[in-house]
């Protein structure tokens, strides 16, 4: 453990049984979504449309890391708790603007290749005198909030399997709840509750059934098994819970979003069809017992990576003249759902983006009305949205005064089809030979002819009562950050091209921005210290999309930027851009070796790297890499000299000839790119 104590007396009591009194009446941001309803709507209103022109940088801390930061900072009693890459925790004194302590769980760097989407972490949970961390390698860790010392840790996964934790825990009724990821690599999803004092497991809920020759854990699993066919358990099944949770204090109900199938294509994992419960579902759970109360499945028999792990918001709305307790979600599949959270009844569902896999959602059955080609079983088809979704993990925000949800959405589509070479294997993205089971790539010759199909980001203001868009702002890039709403009718969002922006919540007018020169994924937060309202945004580009793509000239280190009215510190200057050129070789290329290299690249390298395409993101575009064709490339791939940086060591799986083949593939693609 790498642990540094710099020193500050921290004292607070955060009582999970006193939720109504503690949910941000004091100006803190003490919960992941600001409150248990996860609205991300702050009552603070010192920063307004009238004075936002005076909003300036007050302080910043360079964390010195160049991987993805997706965490929501937690703020309580003048201290900020933030996680960075490799699940490192930082505690910052908000008055001195200095680090109090850091905690490094020392995740083995070899675990990096077990994750689909970078070694990110979305934050900690705070309860009483403890900070709770879900580490990337599957450990749940309790830290002393004052000192950063470890109190206990519990291993929540079988580390022989490709499980990871990237989501933030939640604390409910003296229980800390955590799920995991790994559906792309072939695992069985679940989430669990642990005692906050001891770390003892109290209950576990599996999201998909296991081997039916073994007694099912509960009636919910027995029922779920009737919706699967074949030998799905040999593929893991999927359904991992890697992000969304919300809690109703009045109903004492925990709402959890589940993930996609493993493998992606239902034709492979469940060849006889079926809904495949509880994939891509919202589960209502009794948090005291782990008992399933009801479920709603957004995408039955998911075949597109349409997870329902996206942000869940709870609200009370008047619909058709009647007050309704609702749950709202915009999962990947392109629809915005309003559901009665007392019983799981679907109230409404409408498209927030271009969708061609389904015509709509049947309000009687609650199921999507799929188009004839949606299952891509007879031909390769361009499907909208794609695996990135019309909305992904980046949180929404809900303004209850305007009854508007602000969604970091996008228009996407990709080519899906059957991989004729697919054979199940226990390693590799998609549990297949390629980087995923479906082709899942941007088409060079789109088959979609509808003029509405496109590829761009957008910030959408959505009316959940009338289920319609009120306004939207088009953005060049799809991977923009999460959203914050405030009582002064402002909407804040960081962008992939490095800007922190503020919009008028009533009409979508851009009224302020600060150029931070590196991509922002994490959602901004606002809080007050000594009566002053602050706005914090954390930069740090990465994640699954950011591993291959970037939308700023260079990637700067992850940095905490904090603004206030009257802030006078200078913003970062634009960095110098170094020229790059494509690799080349004088050695003749062998067509068979090129083909072999492409297969190996797709299986082992393609999760993180591209060749002569985007220029790369966190992971370099190997078409521009100076080490390709040198002994250094072999040292990196076969001997693991970059393992401390998270680059896997493939020496136990790839031969010298394999690595030569990869290089030939890279040279060949770079040469073709020069011609094009």
Total strands: the figure is 40
Mean pLDDT: 91
The major pleated sheet works out as: 5 strands, antiparallel
Distance between the termini: 50 Å
CATH 4th-level superfamily of the domain at 591-675: Cytochrome c-like domain
> Given this structure, which CATH class of the domain at 591-675 is correct?
Mainly Alpha
Shape: globular
Task: Give the strand content.
Answer: 25-35%
- What percentage of residues falls in helices of 4 or more residues? under 10%
Query: What structural category do the secondary elements indicate?
Result: mainly beta
Examine the secondary-structure arrangement and name the CATH architecture of the domain at 591-675: Orthogonal Bundle
Rounded to an integer in angstroms, the radius of gyration calculated over CA atoms is 24 Å
Spans of at least 5 consecutive residues whose pLDDT stays below 50 are 1-22, 433-438
The helix count comes to 7
In spatial order, strands of the major sheet run 1-7-6-5-4
CATH topology of the domain at 591-675: Cytochrome Bc1 Complex, Chain D, domain 2
């Amino acid at each position: 453990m790498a642990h540094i104590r710099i020193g500050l007396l921290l004292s607070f009591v955060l009582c999970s049984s006193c939720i109504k009194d503690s949910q941000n009446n004091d100006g803190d941001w003490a919960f992941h979504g600001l409150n248990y309803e996860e609205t991300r709507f702050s009552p603070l209103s010192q920063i307004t449309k009238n004075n936002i022109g005076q909003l300036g940088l007050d302080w910043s801390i360079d964390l010195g890391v160049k991987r993805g930061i997706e965490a929501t900072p937690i703020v309580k009693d003048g201290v900020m708790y933030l996680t960075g890459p490799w699940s490192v925790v930082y505690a910052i004194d908000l008055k001195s603007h200095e680090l109090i302590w850091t905690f490094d769980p020392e995740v083995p760097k070899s675990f990096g290749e077990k994750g689909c989407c970078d070694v990110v972490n979305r934050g900690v949970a705070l309860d009483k005198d403890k900070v709770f961390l879900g580490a990337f390698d599957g450990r749940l860790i309790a830290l002393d909030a004052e000192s950063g010392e470890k109190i206990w840790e519990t291993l929540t996964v079988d580390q022989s399997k490709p499980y990871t934790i990237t989501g933030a825990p939640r604390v409910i009724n003296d229980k800390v709840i955590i799920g995991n990821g790994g559906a792309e690599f072939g695992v069985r999803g679940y989430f669990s509750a642990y005692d906050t004092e001891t770390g003892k497991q109290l209950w576990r809920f599996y999201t998909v059934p296991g081997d039916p020759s073994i007694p099912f854990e509960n009636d919910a699993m027995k029922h779920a098994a009737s919706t699967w066919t074949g030998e799905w358990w040999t593929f893991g099944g999927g359904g991992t819970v890697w992000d969304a949770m919300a809690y109703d204090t009045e109903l004492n109900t925990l709402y959890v979003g589940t993930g996609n199938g493993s493998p992606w294509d239902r034709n492979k994992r469940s060849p006889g069809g079926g809904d495949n419960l509880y994939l891509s579902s919202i589960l209502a759970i009794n948090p005291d017992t782990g008992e399933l109360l009801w479920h709603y499945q957004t995408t039955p028999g998911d075949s597109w990576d349409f997870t329902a792990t996206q942000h869940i918001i709870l609200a009370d709305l008047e619909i058709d003249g009647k007050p309704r307790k609702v749950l709202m979600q915009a999962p990947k599949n392109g629809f915005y759902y309003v559901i009665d959270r007392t019983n799981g009844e679907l109230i409404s569902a409408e498209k927030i983006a271009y969708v061609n896999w389904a015509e709509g959602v049947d309000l009687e059955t609650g199921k999507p009305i799929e188009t004839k080609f949606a299952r891509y079983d007879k031909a390769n088809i361009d499907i909208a949205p794609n695996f990135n979704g019309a909305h992904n993990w980046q949180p929404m925000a809900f303004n209850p005064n305007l009854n508007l949800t602000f969604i970091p959405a996008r228009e996407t589509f990709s080519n899906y089809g059957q991989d004729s070479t697919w054979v199940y294997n226990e390693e590799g993205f998609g549990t297949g030979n390629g980087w995923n089971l479906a082709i899942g790539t941007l088409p060079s010759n789109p088959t979609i002819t509808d003029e509405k199909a496109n590829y761009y980001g957008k910030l959408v203001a959505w009316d959940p009562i009338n289920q319609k868009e009120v306004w939207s702002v088009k953005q060049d890039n799809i991977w923009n950050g999460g959203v914050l709403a405030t009582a002064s009718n402002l909407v804040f969002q960081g962008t992939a091209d490095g800007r922190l922006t503020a919009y008028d919540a009533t009409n979508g007018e851009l009224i302020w921005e600060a150029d931070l020169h590196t991509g922002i994924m994490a959602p901004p937060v606002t809080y007050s210290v000594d009566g002053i309202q602050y706005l914090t945004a954390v930069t740090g580009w990465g994640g699954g999309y950011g591993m291959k793509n970037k939308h700023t000239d260079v990637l700067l280190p992850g940095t905490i930027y904090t603004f206030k009215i009257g802030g006078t510190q200078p913003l970062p200057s634009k960095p110098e851009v170094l020229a790059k050129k494509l690799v080349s070789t004088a050695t003749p290329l062998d067509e068979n070796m090129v083909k072999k290299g492409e297969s190996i690249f797709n299986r082992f390298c393609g999760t993180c790297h591209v060749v002569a395409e985007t220029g790369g993101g966190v992971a370099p575009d190997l078409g521009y890499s100076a080490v390709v064709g040198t002994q250094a490339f072999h040292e990196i791939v076969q001997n693991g000299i970059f393992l401390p940086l998270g680059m896997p060591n493939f020496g136990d799986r790839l031969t010298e000839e394999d690595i030569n083949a990869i290089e030939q593939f890279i040279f060949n693609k770079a040469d073709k790119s020069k011609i094009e």
